[in-house]
Design brief:
The protein has strands at residues 3-14, 20-29, 32-49, 52-63, 66-75, 80-85. With 86 residues, it is mostly beta strands. The chain has one domain (3-85). A six-stranded antiparallel barrel has the order 1-2-3-4-5-6.
Length: 86
């Protein structure tokens, strides 16, 4: 996987217990918007970066008929989603 570090728009389900389940996200590629639906969440973890807590999700999705592994991050302090690796 290569590091992309690109902000994305995410639709996610926030549960009562505080857990977050990402569902699908939108990204701009070649001046076109692409919607990617998350097929499976493989793992979740919390890391600290410069004092900020960040949820890290390793997921799979089918993109252009190919299953891809990727990593997305949710910055809790700044309320933003980042496509980190793909």
């Amino acid at each position: 996987m290569k590091v992309v570090a690109k902000e994305i728009e995410m639709i996610a389900h926030f549960k009562d217990d505080g857990n977050i389940n990402p569902i699908r996200f939108r990204i701009e590629e070649n001046k076109k918007l692409k919607v990617i639906k998350i097929a499976k969440i493989i793992s979740t973890d919390i890391e600290k970066l410069c004092g900020n807590r960040i949820w890290v999700y390793k997921c799979t999705a089918v993109v252009d008929s190919v299953e891809k592994l990727f990593e997305i991050k949710y910055d809790i302090e700044n309320c933003r989603w980042i496509l980190w690796k793909i």
